[in-house]
UniProtKB/TrEMBL annotation:
<keyword id="KW-0479">Metal-binding</keyword>
<dbReference type="GO" id="GO:0004065">
    <property type="term" value="F:arylsulfatase activity"/>
</dbReference>
<keyword id="KW-0732">Signal</keyword>
<dbReference type="Pfam" id="PF00884">
    <property type="entry name" value="Sulfatase"/>
</dbReference>
<dbReference type="GO" id="GO:0046872">
    <property type="term" value="F:metal ion binding"/>
</dbReference>
<dbReference type="InterPro" id="IPR000917">
    <property type="entry name" value="Sulfatase_N"/>
</dbReference>
<protein>
    <submittedName>
        <fullName>Sulfatase-like hydrolase/transferase</fullName>
    </submittedName>
</protein>
<keyword id="KW-0378">Hydrolase</keyword>
<dbReference type="InterPro" id="IPR024607">
    <property type="entry name" value="Sulfatase_CS"/>
</dbReference>
<feature type="domain" description="Sulfatase N-terminal">
    <location>
        <begin position="26"/>
        <end position="344"/>
    </location>
</feature>
<feature type="signal peptide">
    <location>
        <begin position="1"/>
        <end position="19"/>
    </location>
</feature>
<dbReference type="InterPro" id="IPR017850">
    <property type="entry name" value="Alkaline_phosphatase_core_sf"/>
</dbReference>
<keyword id="KW-0106">Calcium</keyword>
<dbReference type="InterPro" id="IPR050738">
    <property type="entry name" value="Sulfatase"/>
</dbReference>
<comment type="similarity">
    <text>Belongs to the sulfatase family.</text>
</comment>
Length: 467
């Protein structure tokens, strides 16, 4: 009996220690907006948009003006964020949209985040976190790619890449099945109300459900992606605007108010002092589609100019005065996985094969070098490198371009003719990086690969024989 009581005491002690350890882990909320313009926030300099909640958050946070995504469109960018890897390493080079390109011919059930890739959800679960994703998924429409099978304990949202902000009748043939709102796994039901508000309400419910244990929540807004659906009351806030720009302003304001409701609830619940909030965007704004503003950057969503790949980035650690208000070196959304993992107590050295870095020692000043001397981008034959302040762009249909971002943020003065040796160097660097990447997984049906290789071998043999 004495030994049994001793064992029980030890078990209780271990349980208490574990509880104490969990209670000291910070909660983490990662907020991702969709297709927002680089300049379309007050903290980014906008005099038109109304974003008081995010502006206040930024004023109390680390803001990174040189933050990048790894992909210039939604799906690849999110794949990189979720895995901490360049998405091309596992063949996720294009949006996983059937018919997106004629040569991308795999069936729907083969198009998604590859099943052999671990996500930030998997890693956070391993260190004791309850994980959730609310909003847009876009990592595969069929059951095998479902968030509940990819490291997330909770899911409320839709599997596709864009949908109506208002409830719809899913019997309508114009509505895709991946657009249906889903709770958990295969519990489909359209909510009442405007979708951005619904996602905020679901976030508050998630916080209440998991506030006694550390949680990691990925709040993946579809705002401000098309369709351009705005609430009448928020449209009225911008009488000086018209058209898409007016709709975008209203949609952005609604999203900001949704964030404010979450921040208010954290404070009311007493969780604000132990909750880290990260806000960023998935790619540059598509200036034609939603009238977003990426100034002073050139370019837009889907290209590799700064306006396609540089995004707002706010990192909020409550009650921490050690970090700078602004961190100038380049960072990437690739860094979110190792940084969140480190915040939760994970040993970043145990993460294998990732391209991101833990930003905390850089923010604190423990590491004086920059997080990334070199960053890469690729989509089909197009590619780009940022190396220090140099920006190199490769195109399939015109000569390469070279810019010095320290003096030419808008990429106006092409210096390629002045630095031919640098152009050669960057061509080689990009090619060598590409040799480490996988073939896009849905570029061709596998049944064609054998015939394609036979044609290549035949071409090589003919070339040798004709010398």
């Amino acid at each position: 009996m004495k030994y049994i009581l001793l064992l029980l005491s030890l078990l209780c002690l271990i349980g208490n220690l574990n509880a104490q350890t969990n209670s000291t882990k910070p909660n983490i909320i990662l907020i991702l907006s969709d297709d927002a313009g680089y300049a379309d926030f007050g903290f980014q300099g906008s005099k038109v948009m109304k974003t008081p909640a995010l502006d206040k958050l930024a004023s109390q946070s680390i803001v990174c003006p040189q933050a990048y995504v790894a992909g210039a469109v939604c799906g690849p960018s999110r794949a990189a964020l979720l895995t901490g890897k360049y998405q091309q390493r596992f063949g996720f080079e294009e949006n996983n949209v059937p018919g997106y390109m004629q040569n991308y011919q795999l069936a729907d059930d083969d198009m998604g985040l590859p099943l052999d890739q671990k996500t930030i959800g998997n890693y956070m679960q391993e260190i004791g976190y309850k994980t959730g994703i609310i909003g847009k998924w876009h990592m595969g429409n069929t059951d095998q790619f479902h968030p509940s099978k990819r490291g997330f304990d909770f899911f409320y949202g839709f599997r596709g890449g864009a949908r109506s902000y208002w409830p719809f009748d899913d019997s309508n043939p114009n509505h895709r099945k991946e657009d249906r709102m889903e709770r958990g796994f295969k519990h489909f039901e359209e909510p009442e109300g405007y979708l951005t508000d619904v996602f905020a309400e679901e976030t508050i419910q998630f916080i209440d459900a998991y506030q006694k244990e550390p949680f990691f929540l990925f709040l993946s807004f579809n705002a401000v992606h098309t369709p351009m659906h705005a609430k009448e009351e928020d449209l009225n806030e911008f009488p000086e605007l018209e058209g898409k720009r007016k709709q975008l302003a209203a949609m952005t304001f609604t999203m900001d108010k949704a964030c404010q409701s979450i921040f208010d609830h954290l404070k009311k619940s007493g969780l604000d002092k132990n909750t880290i909030i990260i806000y960023t965007n998935d790619n540059g704004g598509p200036t034609d589609a939603n009238a977003s503003d990426n100034s002073p950057l050139s370019g837009t969503k889907a290209n590799h100019y700064e306006g396609g790949i540089r995004v707002p980035f706010v990192f909020h650690m409550p009650n921490n005065k050690k970090f700078p208000g602004e961190y100038l070196p380049s960072v990437s959304t690739l860094d979110l996985l190792p940084t969140c993992y480190a915040l939760g107590g994970g040993e970043v050295e145990n993460l294998e094969g990732i391209d991101g870095v833990n930003l905390l020692p850089y923010f604190k000043g423990d590491k004086s070098e920059v997080p990334h001397q070199t960053l890469y981008w690729k989509k089909e034959n197009r590619g780009a490198i940022r190396d220090g302040n140099w920006k190199f762009l490769r195109f399939p249909d015109r000569p390469a371009e070279l810019y010095d971002l320290s003096s030419d943020l808008s990429e106006v003065n092409n210096l390629a003719d002045q630095y031919p040796e640098k152009i050669k160097e960057y061509y080689k660097m990009l090619f060598e990086w590409e040799l480490t990447l996988a073939r896009p997984r849905w570029q061709l049906q596998r049944k064609y690969e054998g015939a394609a290789m036979e044609r290549i071998d035949k071409y090589k043999n003919n070339k040798v024989n004709n010398r």
